[in-house]
UniProtKB/TrEMBL annotation:
Keywords: Cell membrane, Membrane, Transmembrane, Transmembrane helix, Transport. The chain crosses the membrane at residues 46-65, 107-130, 142-163, 187-215, 248-268, 295-316. It holds the Pfam family BPD_transp_1. This is Sugar ABC transporter permease.
Length: 326
């Protein structure tokens, strides 16, 4: 007796169907996923701005807004004309003031001495990176002055550079007559700048050492194999490799020279002799703190800000060109 086919029938898979309940459910889920992914992308794009916003707000409130107030205040009067608009009278007075002109001339000397102030920590960092004997001790010794207060540094060098101090005693022992280091108008400014460089180059040294950590050591090894001398290695390998670091040190050193020498000037020379060691920041303090002329001090501060901005941009431009040419 013939038996019929009892095998179960095979139904087609439902994975490819778009009709029915399963198809409707998957169709309803797809727009939800797209909406969620779009929100995630927007959050990722906004995240950097949200993270930077507090820092930007602090800069605007504590830096830019006071700066704009100071610039606006520089166009008002002092004394009997306090609060009244005087145009550019304060700037005219600055240009006719011999002390402010001396301060601007000293700024020019600072710009000329800037490469020396940058080269000293750069060379010392190079020797430490090349592991000269005793490089660990030198690293600590070089950085030590950076932790001292400018007032302490000034007091120490006042004793060392006194007319009857140790420096002149050493010079006298070799037959050199004593030098009035801080009383001679021709050399006092250079002495103060030298003390400032000694006291602050430790921070630049640390920045250079951090830059050396990013330098490709294979280039140095290749230069040594080719028989390059140390000056050639510095010129053709180290300087191009540290171009960004050098730019940063140039700008920060210039800003430090223009805005961080007040303590040394106050302790060592008080602007003397004969006003030869005046800098804009010391002139600003004199006008604000002693002469009670805040509007004129604001005008001098604005001039100092413009000088730093122009000099900083020129330095970056020149260093970029030098880096491309090398």
């Amino acid at each position: 007796m013939p038996i019929g086919n009892t095998q179960p029938s095979v139904r087609p898979a439902l994975s490819g169907r778009t009709d029915g309940p399963a198809g409707d459910t998957s169709a309803r889920r797809r727009p939800a996923r797209r909406a969620g992914s779009g929100g995630g992308l927007r959050a990722e794009r906004l995240a950097p701005y949200i993270l930077v916003a507090p820092a930007v707000l602090i800069i605007v409130l504590l830096r830019l807004y006071p700066l704009l107030l100071g610039v606006n205040f520089s166009f008002t009067g002092d004394g009997a004309r306090n609060g009244t608009a005087v145009g550019i009278d304060n700037y005219r007075e600055l240009l006719t003031d011999p002390l402010f002109r001396t301060a601007l001339g000293n700024v020019g000397w600072l710009v000329l001495l800037l490469p020396v102030a940058v080269a000293i920590p750069g060379l010392l960092a190079t020797f430490i990176y090349l592991r000269v004997p005793g490089h660990r001790v030198y690293r600590s010794v070089y950085f030590f002055p950076a932790v001292l207060s400018p007032v302490i540094v000034g007091a120490i060098f006042n004793l060392l550079l006194a007319f009857d101090g140790p420096f002149n005693a050493v010079l006298g022992a070799v037959g050199v007559p004593p030098i009035d280091w801080l009383g001679n108008p021709d050399i006092a400014m250079f002495v103060v700048v030298g003390v400032h460089v000694w006291a602050t180059f430790g921070m630049s040294l640390v920045v250079f050492l951090a830059g050396f950590a990013t330098l490709d050591s294979a280039l140095l090894d290749a230069a040594r194999v080719d028989g390059a001398s140390l000056p050639q290695v510095i010129r053709h390998v180290i300087i191009p490799g540290l171009s960004r670091t050098i730019q940063f040190v140039f700008v920060t050193t210039m800003i430090g020279m223009l805005t961080s020498m007040f303590g040394l000037l106050y302790v060592m020379t008080s602007g003397g002799p004969e006003g030869s060691t005046y800098l804009p920041e010391y002139y600003i303090w004199i006008q604000q703190g002693q002469m009670n002329r805040p509007a004129l001090a604001s005008a001098a501060s604005t001039v100092l800000f413009v000088i730093m901005l122009v000099v900083g941009l020129l330095q970056i431009q020149l260093l970029r060109r030098a880096g491309k040419e090398s």
